């Protein structure tokens, strides 16, 4: 086929994209808005529905795969539309800078159900710079013997950092596993210890 | 479709903009581009998995561009007489959009849909009316004229 050298610049497209994101949001067409945020843990993917923050994901979790999963489980109307994430991005910046101890953003926990949901809801009870053991979390969630299930619930927490599953550690005090990698967990625990309770 | 819509914008945004510019010129193309993707975003969850996404978008883009054109014509002050196509100045000093604007209507649209939008000629005929052979002829004639009037590179042969 004959190809025509038809100039379209990246600037044209990013300007048009920004306008599209704003108009689509106004018309209620963005079921999942997302952006990435750089910080000490590398780029974080932040995604929100109109109800609230629905997903935070680390680079090791593969942002593309996470977006595909959100498209399948929530809606394929997924758009890079940073406006909806402004609040949580600002609060995360403050948290990483040691200037914030708790998050105040609406959460959409539709991706977790059952016992895992109960565990995720109890994670917010562990205060800044404090830790709890998996066993203690199991007891708090009303199923003292479900220690392994608590581990799974923490690993699959859809909104890590904001909901502090990094504060759940092993009974011997060692950090244990983390969706963002063991180093990321240590970075967060060190940050909170340094800033203080 | 269950693919994130963002990928559709990333993959096809440039093609849709070329089609809109080919029909409208660069100044009025932005509006048609936005309308195309808003409309596509609305319909995206219901689109069949096997659908040809680019062809679907190019067809929407062409329709939205025509809408913008008609809205502009309704607003325009009528003048006594307008030539169908303005004669090209000597030399290859036009940019592509101006060169396209000087083509006869059907050639311009055939080039927009086929050469810039990648739509096969049988689908071009479906959009413009007439036979695929006539659409192919219009596209080939349009490109032949562009070769004379448009300064930048045109690669490849006509099909």
Automatic annotation (TrEMBL), chain B:
Source organism per UniProt: Cellulomonas rhizosphaerae
Gene3D superfamilies named among the record's database cross-references: 1.10.1740.10, Winged helix-like DNA-binding domain superfamily/Winged helix DNA-binding domain
InterPro entries reported for this sequence: RNA_pol_sigma-70-like (IPR039425), RNA_pol_sigma-70_dom (IPR014284), RNA_pol_sigma70_r2 (IPR007627), RNA_pol_sigma70_r4_t2 (IPR013249), RNA_pol_sigma_r2 (IPR013325), RNA_pol_sigma_r3/r4-like (IPR013324), WH-like_DNA-bd_sf (IPR036388)
Keyword DNA-binding: yes
Domain of life, per lineage: Bacteria
The name this protein goes by in its record: Sigma-70 family RNA polymerase sigma factor
Family stated for the protein in its record: Belongs to the sigma-70 factor family. ECF subfamily.
Keywords for this protein: DNA-binding, Sigma factor, Transcription, Transcription regulation
GO MF annotations in UniProt: DNA binding; sigma factor activity
TM segment ranges: none
Keyword hit for Transcription: yes
One Pfam short name: Sigma70_r4_2
């Amino acid at each position: 086929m004959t190809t025509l050298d038809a100039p379209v610049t990246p600037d044209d497209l990013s300007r048009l994209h920004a306008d599209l994101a704003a108009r689509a949001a106004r018309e209620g067409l963005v079921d999942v808005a997302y952006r990435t945020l750089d910080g000490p843990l590398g780029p974080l993917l932040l995604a929100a529905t109109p109800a609230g923050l629905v997903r935070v994901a680390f680079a090791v979790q593969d942002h593309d795969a996470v977006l595909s999963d959100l498209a399948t489980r929530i809606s394929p109307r997924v758009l890079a539309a940073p406006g909806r994430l402004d609040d949580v991005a600002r609060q995360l910046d403050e948290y990483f800078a040691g200037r914030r101890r708790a998050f105040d953003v609406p959460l959409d926990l539709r991706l977790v159900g059952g016992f895992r949901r109960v565990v995720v809801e109890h994670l917010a009870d562990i205060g800044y710079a404090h830790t709890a053991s998996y066993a203690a979390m199991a007891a708090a969630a009303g199923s003292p013997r479900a220690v392994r299930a608590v581990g799974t619930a923490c690993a699959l927490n859809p909104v890590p950092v904001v909901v502090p599953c990094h504060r759940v550690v092993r009974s011997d005090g060692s950090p244990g596993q983390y969706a963002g990698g063991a180093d990321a967990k240590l970075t967060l625990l060190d940050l909170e210890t340094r800033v203080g309770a | 479709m269950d693919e994130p819509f963002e990928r559709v914008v990333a993959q096809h945004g440039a093609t849709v903009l070329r089609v809109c510019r080919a029909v409208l010129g660069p100044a009025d193309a932005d509006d048609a581009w936005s309308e195309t993707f808003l409309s596509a975003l609305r319909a995206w969850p219901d689109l069949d998995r096997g659908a040809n996404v680019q062809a679907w978008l190019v067809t929407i883009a062409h329709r939205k561009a025509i809408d913008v054109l008609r809205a502009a014509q309704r607003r325009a002050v009528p003048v006594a007489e307008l030539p169908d196509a303005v004669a090209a100045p000597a030399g290859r000093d036009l940019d592509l959009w101006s060169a396209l604007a000087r083509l006869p209507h059907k050639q311009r649209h055939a080039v927009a849909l086929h050469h810039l939008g990648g739509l096969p000629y049988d689908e071009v005929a479906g959009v413009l009316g007439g036979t695929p052979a006539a659409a192919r002829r219009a596209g080939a004639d349009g490109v032949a004229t562009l070769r004379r009037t448009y300064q930048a590179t045109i690669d490849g042969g006509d099909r």
